[in-house]
Amino acid sequence: MEFLIDSFLSAILLLWSFNPDVYFIIYVSLKVSLSSTLIASLLGIPTGFMISFKEFRGKRGVITVLNSLMALPTVVVGLLVYAFISRRGLLGILDLLYTQTAMVIGQVILIFPIVTSLTIAATSRVDERYRKTAMTLGASPLQTALVIFGETRFGIMAGVIAAFGRVISEIGISMMLGGNAKGYTRNMTTAMALEYDKGEFVLGVALGMVLLLISLSINILFNHIQGRSRV
Predict the structure, then answer these.
(1) Sorting pLDDT into bands at 50, 70 and 90, what band is 23?
(2) Is residue 16 part of a domain?
(3) Which of 14, 31, 45, 199 has minimal Cβ neighbours within 10 Å of its Cβ?
(4) Strands, E, within 58-149: which ranges?
(5) Does residue 2 belong to any structural domain of this protein?
(6) pLDDT greater than 60 at residue 231
(7) What distance in Å separates the CA atoms of residue 46 and residue 17, rounded to the nearest whole number?
(8) How large is the average pLDDT for residues 202-222?
(9) What letter does residue 72 receive in the DSSP assignment?
């Protein structure tokens, strides 16, 4: 118990000292996670709208696959992307392996199904009369989509926040595609794993506290938005 308390106090002092190495690790985590969430949202939200409002053969199967991919293991994504961007892969010439870009690519693949599936779930709850009325009044497909987005914005935002919560705490993709390079691709989860292997817990505890604070903030915001979506 004394060891835990000492580690906790030392971690607080480390964060309070504004150590540049610690805060750069936090910066990398936030930068990569926010970038991947933004890209996945720009791709997933329109895709969710298209799947939700277009009728086509196999639609139910597509939705089932997307729902299944929401639980996709991070190491599977890491292995898949690694096969493409490694030196011997199809995209090896781009020299993406062990870069922040590679981490973003992997994380986008990880959370794209989450954003898309939760967008479909949010839009499917909207009364069909909204869309039909907008189209009857002469609205274009884009204008109709904006009307529906206005009605489902809280549900969609909840999906985006859930996706961010998934990537900020993942480790498999970051380790396999980023390589945990100090001062470049090392983020909070990979640094915590490294400190554990070294038997030095102060930095790991400090980063764990930051990660828990971020996760708590995400959950509070998620619950708030979900509450607003039910109003």
Answers:
(1) very high
(2) no
(3) 199
(4) none
(5) no
(6) no
(7) 44
(8) 86
(9) -
